[in-house]
From TrEMBL:
<dbReference type="InterPro" id="IPR019904">
    <property type="entry name" value="Peroxiredoxin_OsmC"/>
</dbReference>
<dbReference type="Pfam" id="PF02566">
    <property type="entry name" value="OsmC"/>
</dbReference>
<dbReference type="InterPro" id="IPR036102">
    <property type="entry name" value="OsmC/Ohrsf"/>
</dbReference>
<dbReference type="InterPro" id="IPR015946">
    <property type="entry name" value="KH_dom-like_a/b"/>
</dbReference>
<dbReference type="InterPro" id="IPR052707">
    <property type="entry name" value="OsmC_Ohr_Peroxiredoxin"/>
</dbReference>
<dbReference type="InterPro" id="IPR003718">
    <property type="entry name" value="OsmC/Ohr_fam"/>
</dbReference>
<dbReference type="GO" id="GO:0006979">
    <property type="term" value="P:response to oxidative stress"/>
</dbReference>
<protein>
    <submittedName>
        <fullName>Peroxiredoxin</fullName>
    </submittedName>
</protein>
<dbReference type="GO" id="GO:0004601">
    <property type="term" value="F:peroxidase activity"/>
</dbReference>
Length: 143
């Protein structure tokens, strides 16, 4: 099975004074604004790093749901946040880390099993495999 999904970006102008718009195939984002100020200066709008963070959090959470099901468990609720770090290095900017933070309520499991399954999801979700940054996970079982 092979699935293709797409996103697109349009950019006009120079780096600092230019403007961009991000769109996704699904239409969830449709010409959503991004630019230098939204990426580096905290202005409203999107940026590539927050999109990667959302993709990583959602992919990891879905992967964990699959792994839990294989173990005969079902989450009552899982909330995952990903923080993607963009750093200026000697040779330019690079995404250097993605920190996943998970809070989950999963009846019928203990913390050791939970940590093992969450670690497996972190290592095996497709977005984790895509990223070459240091990926860390902080998982808290709320039962």
């Amino acid at each position: 099975m092979k699935i293709n999904r797409s996103g697109s970006a349009v950019w006009t102008g120079g780096l600092k004074d230019g403007k961009g718009a991000i769109s996704t195939q699904s239409g969830a984002l449709d010409a959503y604004p991004y630019g230098f100020a939204t990426r580096f200066e905290g202005q409203p709008g999107s940026n590539p790093e927050e999109l990667i963070a959302a993709a990583h959090a959602s992919c990891f959470t879905m992967a964990l749901s699959l792994i839990l099901g294989e173990a005969g468990l079902t989450a009552e609720k899982m909330e995952t946040t990903a923080v993607v770090t963009l750093e200026k290095l000697d040779d330019g900017f690079a995404v250097t880390a993605s920190k996943l933070t998970l809070k989950a309520t999963i009846p019928g499991t203990d913390d050791a099993t939970f940590q093992e399954l969450a670690g497996k999801a972190k290592a095996n979700c497709p977005i984790s495999k895509l990223l070459k940054a240091d990926i860390s996970l902080e998982a808290e079982l709320l039962n």
